[in-house]
Amino acid sequence: MTVEEAFSLLRTGAVEIIPQEDLLKKLHSGKKLTVKLGLDPTRPDIHIGHAVVLRKMRQFQELGHKVVLIIGDFTAMIGDPSGRSKTRPPLTLEETRANAKSYVEQVGKILITTDPARFELRYNSEWLENLGFKEVIRLTSLLTVAQMLEREDFKKRYTEGVPISIHEFLYPFAQGYDSVPIACDVEMGGTDQKFNLLVGREVQAAYGLEKQVAFLMPLLVGGDGQKMSKSYDNYIGITEEPSEIFRKLMKVEDPYLQTYFELCTDLAPEEIKEVLEQGGPVGAHRVLARLLTGAYAQPLIPARLDKAWYESLGYSWEAHGHDQGGAPVVRQAEARYYEIAHGGIPEQMPEVRLQASELLEGRIAVLKLFTLAGLTASNGEARRLIEQKGLRLDGQVLTDPKLEVVLSQPVVLQRGKDKFVRVVLD
User: Where mainly found (predicted)?
Assistant: First the structure.
């Protein structure tokens, strides 16, 4: 592959590369580039929104460059203020390192982590924990307060009178300094990280290093258009069960299908247009769900999630999602989805075990039962859902919130169409 072809591949899907000519120059130099991504382990899960950036980094690896994943175990104690409307509660170093262990395991599904020439893992506590106050002063002298308040989230909070802690101003400098010990050539991030990545360029210059390229990728929202979050049930974890990944992708609302194809796959624009037009919403959903479910069921996802990968799963591209068959793991996930959609109860589901002490004479209030099983947040929510006919017991719609359930044998609880829990009495 020529430098120009590599450059064309890398910039595909990017929102902004600052500056583009520097990236092309670095590629022409023939040196192995150091490509950095910083992750603050504030939560233990990685979702397909993170995968947008990680898959681009995989492309750098496939081209022979080295990815350095920096776990922000130290900066997580500050809390990244990007997009925040209020100060994030700080985490302890122990909490961040516990979450980091899960992160590293999960990125191994996307990045090549077994080759030291193409992957390195670092923790920024290595250099930030012992950074002297003299260096902190040096760093903070690089920007003015006015420049900090140009940042959209800080500007909004300042205008609205929402407190901004001084330690939050330190975050961009800390993230920027991460690029110094590793002599970063390219730093990756979502569009919400633009300010931080640009600060990194200035920090490197202050320490006599060549400025890194800021490589910005788009942010993927949930399939309903809201921020991707577990609380909205639009969060798709890359290590979830295939049936869950399939189900959640089938729930992506029609207006967001094209965005998901563009950001989560390597299909060409004309192929995306083809499947949307000829497959229709149903066929397009199936192609998306099959392609990604099959990919994330692998220990290491394929380098390219394209038409060839889709066909390797045993499907015909020309059918545009309206055929049967396919790889067993995808076929089973799809079968479960349609079984549930048609009112069936799946064989496999999470199991909750209750102690006899939680019952009164072998009985338990149905409201308490759903709450203990984790399908409702409170008895009040369970009552409201029963009144809306949104809960089922062994397939039967519940109508009486005062019902008491006898647990002489396992029972299946259901919320909506696709959330099931089997309750067993110990």
Answer: cytoplasm
